[in-house]
Amino acid sequence: MASSDISLLLPSPGLYHPSQWPERYAWLQALHEAWEMSSAEHSSIRIVENYSAFDYPFDRIKRLYDINVHGSFFTAREAARNMIPQGGGSIVLVASMSAHPQTPYNASKAAVRHMAASLAVEWAKKGVRVNTLSPGYMLTKLTKTILAHDQELKKTWESLTPMGKMGEPDDLSGAIVFLASDASRFVTGANVNVDGGYTVI
Question: In total, how many domains does the chain have?
């Protein structure tokens, strides 16, 4: 299965403003209708904010959890409902290396990892595998916008990564295809770091 096939499974996160995400998760019907395209599910919904623990507004924390935790859960649940009648499948949720200083963000991504492990156990005998992918500092459209105004931050992120550079989105493709394919058919409840060595220093 090619990474381009996997990307077809979900509507682009850009189609929905994060503030619209919690409202009944209406796009899940689109996921259901697109199901015949593949038996692998890759879920990534991104949000980046910058508050200290003392200053983080409650409504922003709730929004963060709605996107990172609740969004991942309902995506995985809908995917599993389609997979089980077909004999199983593979779900890949995107966690994080949790390097961001904001406590709510770290906690939300830790929740995704633990949730994936719990779902892996619950659905294992039904043929559904659940794993997580934890990217490091990546040059996505979002981070490029941020770094365009802060080159020092880019240098800091690169210096924190043993490989001395930030990753590209394509660097995630191999791990996603591995976790989504039969190459990892005996792998569930695992986390794969794609972070240039960040988490081992």
Answer: 1
| Mean pLDDT on 78-93 | 91
Q: Which one is catalytic: 43, 105, 137, 198?
A: 105
Q: Residue 107 is encoded by which pair of tokens?
A: 């906690």
Residue 113 half-sphere exposure toward CB, CA atoms < 13 A: 17
Task: State the CATH number of the domain containing residue 19.
Answer: 3.40.50.720
What are the tens digits of pLDDT across the range 104-147? Answer: 888 888 999 999 999 999 999 999 999 999 999 999 988 899 89
User: Quick check: 68 and 111 in contact, CB under 8 A?
Assistant: yes
Q: What is the pLDDT of residues 20-67, one digit of tens each?
A: 444 444 445 545 554 444 445 555 555 566 778 888 899 988 888 888
154 belongs to the catalytic site: no
Q: Could you confirm whether 56 is annotated as catalytic?
A: no
Enclosing domain of residue 88: 3-200
Catalytic residue among 39, 44, 72, 96: 96
Q: Pairing state of beta strands 191-194 and 128-135?
A: parallel
- 137 as an active site residue: the answer is no
Nearest to 89, CA basis, from 133, 47, 132, 126: 126
- Residue ranges of alpha helices (H) inside 84-164 are 103-123, 141-147, 151-160
- Among the options 109, 137, 154, 184, which is catalytic? 109
Q: Which residue has the tokens 């709510």?
A: 104
